[in-house]
Amino acid sequence: VQLVESGGGVVQPGRSLRLSCEASGFIFSSHELHWLRQAPGKGLEWVAVITNDGSKKYYAESVKGRFTISRDNSKNTVYLQMNGLGVEDTAVYYCAKDFDDWGQGILVTVSS
Amino acid sequence: AGLTQPPSVSKDLGQTATLACAGNSDNVGAEGAAWLQQRQGHPPKLLFYRNNNRPSGISDRLSASRSGNTASLTITGLQPEDEADYYCSAWDYGLSAWVFGGGTKLTVL
C-alpha cells in the first residue's frame, strides 16, 4: 500500500490550495479515505473523510464550509480543496486509508 | 469536544505502561477507540482498531481494552522503541466526526 500526497506549499492567508493523494496497492474504491493534519509541535487533528463511493463526506467543525474532500476512483486519488486558508491551517497534512495506512504527509504553510 | 489523554507517562525499561483515553457515550462508549503510535518524524501507525483487534505485525506486548467510556492501551515489557506519542481516536455519533485525544508522550527511562 502506498499513499502519496502532493500539492502542499506556502500560501497567503485567504487563498486556496488543493491537495492530492494518489493511492496504490489496494482496491481504492473499497475504502474510506481520510485527511488529517498536525500543526507544528501539536497533536493529530482529523480533518475529513469520504466514503468509498464518494456519497458521504464528513468534516471537522474547524474546516466545515472551507474545505471539500472528493475522490476520483478512476484515478485512485483523493483530494482536499482548501479555501479561505488561515494561519491556523498551517500543518503537515496526511491522507490515510481507514487509519491503517498513511502517507508521509505534506506541509502546508499559510503565511503572508 | 475531543478525547482526553494524559499528556505524558514515564516508566522504566521492562515495566508496564497503561495509557488512558476518556470519552463519552457518543464516541468511546459507543464503539470503542482506535490507538495509533507516532514516533518522532514519522507518520502515525495504527496499533489497534476500535474493536481492540491488532493489525498484523503489531507486537503482542500491546493490548487494548475498554471500560465504559474509557479506553486503555497497555504495553508490557517496555522497550526503548516504545518511546513515542500515542493517540486514541473514535467516531463521535453526536458530532458525526472523528475525534482524537491530545496524545500521550510515553518516555521509557
Description:
The complex is a heterodimer of chains A (112) and B (109). Chain A has 112 residues and is mainly beta. Chain A is 0% helix and 52% strand. Chain A has no helices and eleven strands. Chain A has strands at 2-6, 9-11, 17-24, 33-38, 44-50, 57-59, 67-72, 77-82, 91-97, 101-102, 106-110. In chain A, strands 2, 4, 5, 6, 9, 10 and 11 form a seven-stranded mixed beta sheet that branches. Chain A has a four-stranded antiparallel beta sheet with strand order 1-3-8-7, with no helix packed on it. The relative contact order of chain A is 0.32. The mean pLDDT of chain A is 97. Chain B contains one helix and nine strands. Chain B has one helix at 28-31, and strands at residues 8-11, 17-22, 34-38, 45-48, 62-67, 70-75, 84-92, 97-100, 104-108. In chain B, the strands form two sheets. In chain B, strands 1, 3, 4, 7, 8 and 9 form a six-stranded mixed beta sheet that branches. In chain B, strands 2-6-5 form a three-stranded antiparallel beta sheet, with no helix packed on it. Chain B is mostly beta strands and 109 residues long. In chain B, 4% of the residues lie in helices and 45% in strands. Classes of the chains: A mainly beta (112), B mainly beta (109).
Rounded Rg of chain A? 13 Å
Low-confidence stretches of chain B: none
**Helix fraction of chain B?**
under 10%
* Total beta strand runs of chain A: 11
Separation of the first and last Cα atoms of chain B = 32 Å
Low-pLDDT runs of 5+ residues of chain A are none
Shape of chain B: globular
Envelope shape of chain A: globular
Determine the oligomeric state from the structure. heterodimer
